[in-house]
Amino acid sequence: MTNLLRWISTILCGSLLQGCLCVGCFVPQLPPPAKPYRSYWTKIGVTEEVRKTDWVACGGSENGNFSWDSRKMLSDETNETSRLRQSSELKACLNQRGYHYEIPRD
Fold first, then answer.
1. Cα–Cα dist 78/55, whole Å
2. HSE, side-chain direction, 13 A CA sphere, residue 2
3. How far apart are CA 85 and CA 32, in angstroms?
4. Ramachandran angles phi, psi of 102, nearest 5°
5. Torsion over CA of 12, 16, 18 and 21, rounded to 10 degrees?
6. What is the average per-residue pLDDT within 71-85?
7. Stretch 85-97: mean pLDDT
8. Does residue 58 contact residue 93 with C-beta atoms inside 8 Å?
9. What integer pLDDT is reported at residue 96 of this predicted model?
10. Model confidence over 11-48: pLDDT tens digits?
C-alpha cells in the first residue's frame, strides 16, 4: 500500500511541477502599452516635463492624450466640428512653440 501511495504522490507532484514550470509557455505576450499622443510631438533640447507643460497649455490632457472639451464648443458647432477645431488649435499651438509631429513607426 505504501508503494502505491508513493507512486501516486510521485505522479501527482511531477504533474504539478511540470504545470507550474510551464504556466508561462501558453500565456500570450501582451503588446506594449500604447504611447500617448504627446510623445509623438518632439522638440530638440526640451525635457519631458517642459513638453508636458506645453502640451497641457496648448489644450492637451494631463495623461498625454487629446480629447475635445465640450465646454469649449461654440454655439454653431457640431461635436465633430468642435473636436476638429480644438485639435487644430492644439497642433497650431505646438507648432508655434517649435514642436514637430513625428509619424509613429510602430
1. 25
2. 0
3. 31
4. -105, 125
5. -160
6. 93
7. 96
8. yes
9. 98
10. 655 555 555 555 555 667 777 778 899 999 999 999 99
Percentage with pLDDT > 90 across the chain: 57
Q: In angstroms, what CA-CA distances link 79 with 57, 65, 83, 85?
A: 22, 18, 6, 10
d(CA 35, CA 95): 20
Q: Label residue 97 exposed, middle or buried (CB < 10 Å: 0-12, 13-18, 19+).
A: middle
Q: In the beta sheet, which residues pair with residue 41?
A: 101
Residues in the chain: 106
Is the separation of the CB atoms in 42 and 54 below 8 Å? no
Q: Which H, E and C letters describe 18-51, residue by residue? A: HHHHCHHHCCCCCCCCCCCHHHHEECCCCCHHHH
Collect all residues with Cβ–Cβ distance below 8 Å to 51 and sequence separation of at least 6. 38, 41, 43, 99
